[in-house]
Recover the amino acids of this structure.
């Protein structure tokens, strides 16, 4: 493909506000540092979108805006037709957004099964009082959560380690537990923060298959922050590239990979 043609295909464009996730003109500063500058892009329902960029480009900051950990100074994020700014951080899961973390955020002394159950609990109805009084609907809810957790344990092939504390498991397996836990809320959007970090070649291959399979099975949209370029290019339907807080390319993986702006941004970067 000619370079000019590649550029045209990846040029940032007006955001599609009807998409599952529409990030529109988001700006966020930390003191004098502009971490995000007028960032706009959209992710369609069921699509896998890779978010790339050199260190400090703003990827984590953007994730934190979508999870409501940070409030943008300007712009809007619309998810499934709702403006996220209207919701508190603890309401995000109920809207249908789940997240995994770079360093795996599980309860190390709890078993695999209990970690997955905790994920399902994020959506549990009834609450503390109903559970404390052992009301019938609380018992029904518990059964429902147990069934959901067991289904996920089977789906993610975790049966063999279901009763082991997750802190004892190899890192790659803990990552699978974290995926199962995130999906326990049956999200419409899954945010994956550097899922390949700390994995070897073979494990990254397995992860790529797993990510595609999750989307096929569940139709969930996935936004993936990742430095591992091969993984991003292999699994994504769309890739958004950031540099110094700005979107420099947005398009199909092959077009973004060959985009001269992206190549320039990565020049001198060893990753
Ligand atoms: N809490 C914070 N306080 C001050 N500056 C911050 C904070 N978080 C991020 N920054 C700055 O904002 C910019 C974007 O950082 P961010 O962590 O979002 O980049 P990134 O693309 O995720 O980088 P990496 O690939 O290294 O994880 C950087 O200049 C960073 O130093």
């Amino acid at each position: 493909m000619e370079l000019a043609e590649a550029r045209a295909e990846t040029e940032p464009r007006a955001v599609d506000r009807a998409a599952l996730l529409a990030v529109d003109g988001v700006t966020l500063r930390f003191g004098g540092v502009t971490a995000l500058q007028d960032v706009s892009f959209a992710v369609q329902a069921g699509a896998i979108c890779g978010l790339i960029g050199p260190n400090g480009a703003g990827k984590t900051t953007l994730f934190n805006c979508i999870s409501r950990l940070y409030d943008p100074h300007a712009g809007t994020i619309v998810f499934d037709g709702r403006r996220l700014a209207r919701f508190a951080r603890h309401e995000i899961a109920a809207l249908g957004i789940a997240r995994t973390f770079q360093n795996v955020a599980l309860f190390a002394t709890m078993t695999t099964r209990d970690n997955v159950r905790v994920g399902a609990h994020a959506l549990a109805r009834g609450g503390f009082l109903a559970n404390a009084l052992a009301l019938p609907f609380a018992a029904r809810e518990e059964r429902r959560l147990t069934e959901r957790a067991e289904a996920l344990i089977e789906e993610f092939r975790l049966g063999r380690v279901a009763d082991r504390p997750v802190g004892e498991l190899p890192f790659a397996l803990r990552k699978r537990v974290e995926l199962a836990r995130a999906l326990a809320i049956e999200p419409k959007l899954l945010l994956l923060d550097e899922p390949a970090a700390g994995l070897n070649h073979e494990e990254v291959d397995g992860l790529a298959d797993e990510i595609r399979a999750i989307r096929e099975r569940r139709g969930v949209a996935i936004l993936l922050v990742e430095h591992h370029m091969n993984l991003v290019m292999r699994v994504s339907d769309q890739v958004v590239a950031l540099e110094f807080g700005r979107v420099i390319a947005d398009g199909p993986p092959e077009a973004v990979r060959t985009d001269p702006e992206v190549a320039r941004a990565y020049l001198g970067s060893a990753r």
